[in-house]
Protein 1
Amino acid sequence: MSDRKVISFENIKIACKSCSLVTLCLPMGLDPEDMDRLDRIIKRSRPLHRGDHLFREGDAFQCLYIVKTGSVKTYAPSEDGGEQVLGFHLPGELIGLDAIENASHNCSAKVLETSAICEIPFSHLEELSISMPSLQHQMYRLLSREISQDESMLTLLGKNNAEERLAAFLLSLSGRFKRRGFSPYDFYLSMSRHEIGNYLGLAVETVSRLFTRFQEEGLLEVERKHIQLLDLQRLESVVKRSSSDTNQIQST
Amino acid sequence: MSDRKVISFENIKIACKSCSLVTLCLPMGLDPEDMDRLDRIIKRSRPLHRGDHLFREGDAFQCLYIVKTGSVKTYAPSEDGGEQVLGFHLPGELIGLDAIENASHNCSAKVLETSAICEIPFSHLEELSISMPSLQHQMYRLLSREISQDESMLTLLGKNNAEERLAAFLLSLSGRFKRRGFSPYDFYLSMSRHEIGNYLGLAVETVSRLFTRFQEEGLLEVERKHIQLLDLQRLESVVKRSSSDTNQIQST
DNA sequence: CGCAATATTGACCACTCTCAATGAGGGTGG
DNA sequence: CCACCCTCATTGAGAGTGGTCAATATTGCG
């Protein structure tokens, strides 16, 4: 968040690519030449603005996307105009993995604020991964991680009450900002209360009330989109606390 | 699928393998030789019994598993003895994809009834996929499908009420049985009411009441574990109906 | 400046959970 | 083979969390 200033398209392009490389390669031991091959298939896109779509449900699947700056939400639209928010994607995060199976997107992706996004043509990536076992392995890992994340989200929605969900959500954002070198305590929510509620399976009003309550309890300070987490530890205890569920299944 | 009768271990082994091959290769155009290479890394396991674990949370990740006969549940245990059921796995379905990332399982898998399960050592599979692009592609697809499925589950938990969840659950089972050649109308639930409720984020009592109500409404007939779906169409309409949610987010 | 979208707050209500009691199977041991 | 026990399932009554509806800020944008 600090001193990064996007000056020209060329800068975006360079910054964008290196960011994507980090996401795709971090734990791999790629030699420089492979790195370069990978780099060459990553395309920058022009800066996108609030409301722009990366893709819509039903679009043919061409590319994976990596957020360089800004943020993106993915959501599943329903016939009647409603939607289920599936995720919020911050810098460094990959979008579109759920589209590989039927070669068409089954959710839509919309940018929440002015964002720089890299595109990676999947066919190229796949081809490249044939001759780069470490890239193939990394792809397996990225796909697998997505599954794990969805599973913990299932647990959140299945077992946790409203306050636990919101606390977990804030801690998730906090951790992801931290990992990317931003402040884990002080950040801006690029999504609306409505979208937060939708994502967490809660009504807007519930989200709003909880923000107020958390603030009263000294857990955080929130004003509009700006939020400061004052007590991460206590926030964590909110998540874990009432997981004292009676929903235990006896083994046989 | 029809006349397959498992008589001996040797038969199990053969049936088991071919089943796994179907799962792994169905949409691929594998030549016989590749098919054979793939076949050779698939291992049968001895028949497992109700309550046996395929793996537990924290176990080192070695194998993927494919259900040949029977059924398996995966679940995320929590410290306090509770758990979140993540899925029920029927014949032909793959288990363990979420473990690739950190090479250790982050959920447990327990068989619900006497079951035949195939093991596929992931390291072998991965190695094989290096020289078999179509296998690699199929792996990407399988992983991607898992993500899609989890996402639609997120929508179910986030937006749908109890009756919609149970109806969707039953229809999911129905469809999966049908695809495997079993009756989509008449089957046995190998999981308890408790486990169904846990999976759907509902209390046991709610599940029980809903079964009763669905029965009163003529949607189905249920006795203990045996269930007959009498009106798939009406069941579908139960799922779709009250998705007339007001939780719509205006585009900007 | 005014309208529209977003947030907040309150009152009320409903869906589902919790608690509790009863009933029905299924397995084990006498 | 039956009795007993334990788990699982069902049903009822009451309570609580969170949703719905509605009114009122507040903000942002044209």
Note: The domain at 160-251 of chain B is CATH 1.10.10.10 (Arc Repressor Mutant, subunit A).
Protein 2
Amino acid sequence: MRPEDLPEIRHLSLFRDMSQVNFNALMDSSYAQIFPPSLDLIRQGDLADFLHIVLDGSVELYASWGERECTMAVVEPVSTFILAACIRDAPYLMSARTLERTRIILVPSSDLRAMFRRDTEFAVAVINELAACYRSVVRSAKALKLRNSRERVAAYLLRQSLLAGGVLSYRLPVEKRLLASYLGMTPENLSRTLRALEAEGVKIDGARVIITDRDRLSDLARPDLLIDGPDLDALGAGASLPHARRGA
Amino acid sequence: MRPEDLPEIRHLSLFRDMSQVNFNALMDSSYAQIFPPSLDLIRQGDLADFLHIVLDGSVELYASWGERECTMAVVEPVSTFILAACIRDAPYLMSARTLERTRIILVPSSDLRAMFRRDTEFAVAVINELAACYRSVVRSAKALKLRNSRERVAAYLLRQSLLAGGVLSYRLPVEKRLLASYLGMTPENLSRTLRALEAEGVKIDGARVIITDRDRLSDLARPDLLIDGPDLDALGAGASLPHARRGA
DNA sequence: CGAGCGGTTGAGGCATGTCAAGAGTTGTGG
DNA sequence: CCACAACTCTTGACATGCCTCAACCGCTCG
């Protein structure tokens, strides 16, 4: 592992408050690795051996059932994923693959489990991280059950605009095909919905999003703090805010 | 609080391993209360003041957005809910209402947060509980995105049969209207789907479920350990297994 | 250059939601 | 105790949201 990576990891909320000695010990048993794009890192059902920390690149978490498959989240630097499976020493519920060339730190899950028994601050950090992750999935489940696809798309577009600092124009952080899966719809349906939304205050040009009437779009999306934020945990959230917490 | 309740709470995985002194301290600051049916206990958006423990009765967790509303989970004795919100000292993401006359223990969330800094075993228990809750919601999100409503209903019916000990006949633990909302469909659609499933190995008579051809039903539902269990956290799971962990 | 892939668009079909009506059940108050 | 209201559940008719299949464009990359 490169020494210059350590400070970045250390700044993660998960590791920020633990003692330096314990942090070093944890990092000593860990190692970094670089993966090419589209590589499967984790297959759902496998046992959780390592906590993963994304340093560079991005990782898609997806789930499959029979032939069907859907994107659950995208993890961007610098953040961790599959913490929960590591803690419970249980099989992964989701698979993971790189979306691009990606550098990842692997922390053995047994060391992780031993560590939060030794370091209270770390245990508290894990508790906070897990609680945040839990709330994130609940939000996502609420969005799926309470909003139709049009409203989900509109809310996503608005949210991305806010995350980018309230700008009226930005580029989609992921491919539309993946976004469609994340939002629980087919690529065709997303394409059509984006087209239809041009009458509702937003213009789409390739990956470029231009919000032409924020109020109008808001009327449709009816953004809600208890679904859309303010926590930073949805797809693409980490792009603009370094050190944002992400799914696990 | 009745003294005879304490052992039952003490046996919850959340409190099982903490020191007796600390358990007593936590219980001293808590109190029990009895609520009539259909009473709103928690409104989403409110600040999380208390961890709730259901001793008797049952509680529905639901979410709303504008006029729309959906059931997220049902909590049955003896288990806790809204742990995550307490820990993050954040607004509830879900509302809660009693389904019947229900006895509940209220643990002040500030005491809770103080306690896991003092008691490592309790911290570890909280970590495990949260990780389990997280995984439970992920399963539920997977079911929603990967299965259609027919498959969800079939999987639910099979799962309930297993939870009841593999019996071929049992009664639905909740009203169909609520079940429909939990499964992400309308009551009308659930009614029709149950009817249609009679050609697929299950007979429905009121609240009574009779599985006539388990294999056939399994072929349709294709139950999956990474969606349907083996953790006990879905709707109605607690009914047959005392001390099962439930949503938070 | 040609294959492969992402994205778009159209046509058509199925799944699911909406609205409405009626049967059965439960709970309540006179 | 009965009558009524309210509610669940069911069923039918209908509307529509979303998916499927297919074709096509443009781009990228071997």
Note: Chain A has ten helices and eleven strands.
